[in-house]
């Protein structure tokens, strides 16, 4: 037991208790799978796949992709300058740094669906409120992640840029950005991928795109179309993931 | 050219001064090597010379300007005219040799042109020239992280040279290089020193390098100057004073902690 201290034994016990309590709360019970057949019946309704609506679905997928891209990209554009203010080492004032961090976690704490529901009342149904909802949430998430990258950046180049006589803010910008760029991109592409899934949920509340179609097909028991919706969503997520790794490998 | 008057630096959270009441003055044309143990105040002294470190007490004068009193703009002018190289080279990663050297011009241009990398043909030609001066003309387009330690320091030197400095500072520039490369770098620094008539001030661990290249040697111990004179006057006695006794004490304290 050379690797374990008494403390880890305590941690282990607490962990087991937590798992047990959570199982009780979530009615976690594997024996419920005896009604397994229901699921098979349900899933068999998904096939054969109905291809007739493919063109419309592709069009909706494109909407979803545009929503996710625009929302996350605008989020990145706004988060990037903010994150320099929200990083301990580059923030102009200590108080501003604390304020920005609190503001970012406040934005992050509001789920996209809440943003969506609120914006829907002003902007009506459609993809536009969904884009804004994704953007707001991503400002919070990317702002935090990028400011942490900035804090972890090597200080040497910043010092060198100050030593050649550059202004402080420019020294920070110029020495930090090249260092963190590959990681910024990988965070961004991950958030893009998450935004695709988010825009599906936002589709459920009328945000448009393939999410709304999926929801409607479900509600109208159109299971042979549901299967194609799901397939398209999977392909989209995988494609973004692949494209992200490709871009990142080019940048590093 | 450079003058320290009663200069003291105390880092926040520490009760022992990193530099205490240092009085020194340096003239154009001197090649100064600063010796001393780790923590003796060598880096602090060098970093005070271009205002990267602020004095807690006393003043550092750069060609007459008191560095703790002048405004940001004047400080940047001082820094522009002071080239500096570092132990860990402090190059901007993921940029090429050429791009890194061009950053040496940042102090003398507006930030819009800096940000978009708008350099005139003349500026680019100057950058190529200094890269040639340090012998990296064949590596000009390579990313700096793919270079060897000695090559990286050469990029650092070229960047500083492009500033057309009057003062050249080195904060342990050869401490992470092997002895052969270190000697090459010192040869280059000496050549630049004499051809540009600079004031060169360099921290170094290796006493032999200091004695071979310097025209003046300084030794620091616990924030105080304990030797200031010609290299040949830095005798074994001073060597022991600078390094030995404190080293023994340090070793002892490490052992006694166990």
TrEMBL record, chain A:
It is found in: Cell membrane. It comes from the Bacteria. Gene3D superfamilies: MetI-like. It holds the Pfam family BPD_transp_1. It is a multi-pass membrane protein. Residues 61-244 form the ABC transmembrane type-1 domain. Keywords: Cell membrane, Membrane, Transmembrane, Transmembrane helix, Transport. One of its GO terms (cellular component) is plasma membrane. InterPro entries: MetI-like, MetI-like_sf, PhnE/PtxC. The chain crosses the membrane at residues 65-87, 168-190, 196-215, 227-246. GO terms for molecular function: ABC-type phosphonate transporter activity. Its main location: membrane. PANTHER family: ABC TRANSPORT SYSTEM PERMEASE PROTEIN P69, PHOSPHONATES TRANSPORT SYSTEM PERMEASE PROTEIN. NCBIfam families: PhnE (TIGR01097). Belongs to the binding-protein-dependent transport system permease family. This is Phosphonate ABC transporter, permease protein PhnE. It comes from Exobacillus caeni.
From TrEMBL, chain B:
One of its GO terms (cellular component) is membrane. PANTHER family: AMINO ACID IMPORT ATP-BINDING PROTEIN, PHOSPHONATES IMPORT ATP-BINDING PROTEIN PHNC. The gene is phnC. The keyword Glycosyltransferase does not apply. This is Phosphonate ABC transporter ATP-binding protein. Residues 2-247 form the ABC transporter domain. Keywords: ATP-binding, Cell membrane, Membrane, Nucleotide-binding, Phosphonate transport, Translocase, Transport. It holds the Pfam family ABC_tran. It comes from the Bacteria. GO terms for molecular function: ABC-type phosphonate transporter activity; ATP binding; ATP hydrolysis activity. The keyword Iron does not apply. InterPro entries: AAA+_ATPase, ABC_transporter-like_ATP-bd, ABC_transporter-like_CS, ABC_transpr_PhnC, MetN_ABC_transporter-like, P-loop_NTPase.
